[in-house]
Specification:
The complex is a heterodimer.
Chain A (H helix, E strand, L loop, with lengths): L4 E3 L2 E4 L5 E6 L6 E7 L6 E7 L2 E4 L8 E4 L6 E5 L8 E8 L8 E2 L3 E5 L1
Parallel strand pairs in A: 2-11
Antiparallel strand pairs in A: 1-3, 3-8, 4-5, 4-9, 5-6, 7-8, 9-10, 9-11
Chain B lengths: L3 E3 L2 E5 L4 E7 L6 E7 L5 E8 L4 E4 L2 E6 L4 E6 L8 E8 L7 E2 L3 E6 L1
Classes of the chains: A mainly beta, B mainly beta.
């Protein structure tokens, strides 16, 4: 079956611009996660949705970052006033909960801020 | 705080065993994971171990957990060229909780 998909696969933007990154989770998965992976680092947690609500947004680095999941399926990560330090691969994962389940990761969106 | 440490690089001859080590700081971690990341591919869960276990074996993979020392290891038997990748040690409180990753160990296979 289809896995987690993310669009676009690559995004180049200028410093100060606004970007949106999209994640389509596996059908039926209620939990959705966003992580950020900088070069040479492991993935770093950003935010976790259970259904439509953010269950844990403790990893969002500042108020320029925001994520939504209005219908409990597709999620969009929004970054305002992008900075060069935002350049990274943004990973999305989904899992079938409750009671816990493996997080399946998408291929990521590589964001480059010039 | 939560932290996962692992060596950054390991070089192994094809056919030998690879052992990748990891230490973590959060004693309340319930699940400990090994993920594999190949160039251009997404993160793949290789195996995980529950904190009340000390060993788990799955084909060529053996995971050892020393909870007292907060030390986790992954042994890959008969290492093949296809095992060349970055291996991430990770931990979480629960299966649906956020996952804390180490920086990854790049496994290089020598012919």
């Amino acid at each position: 079956g289809a896995g987690v998909s993310q669009t676009p696969s690559n995004k180049v933007t200028e410093k100060g611009k606004y970007v949106e990154l999209r994640c389509d989770p596996i059908s039926g998965h209620t939990a959705l996660y966003w992580y950020r992976q900088s070069l040479g680092q492991g993935p770093e947690f950003l935010i976790y949705f259970q259904g439509t609500g953010a269950a844990d947004d403790s990893g969002l680095p500042n108020d320029r970052f925001f994520a939504v999941r209005p219908e409990g399926s597709v999620s969009t990560l929004k970054i305002q006033r992008t900075e060069r330090g935002d350049s990274a691969v943004y990973l999305c994962a989904s899992s079938l909960t409750s009671g816990g389940g493996e997080q399946y990761f998408g291929p990521g969106t590589r964001l480059t801020v010039t | 705080g939560e932290d996962v440490e692992q060596s950054l690089f390991l070089s192994v001859r094809e056919g030998d065993s690879s052992v990748i080590n990891c230490t973590y700081t959060d004693s309340s971690s319930t699940y400990l994971y090994w993920y594999k990341q190949e160039p251009g591919a997404g993160l793949q869960l290789l195996t995980y171990i529950f904190s009340n276990m000390d060993m788990k074996q799955d084909q060529r993979l053996t995971v050892l957990l020393n909870k007292k020392d907060k030390h986790l290891s992954l042994r890959i038997a008969d290492t093949q060229t296809g095992d060349s990748a970055i291996y991430f040690c990770a931990e979480s409180m629960n299966r649906d909780d956020k996952i804390i990753f180490g920086k990854g160990t790049r496994l290089h296979i020598l012919p």
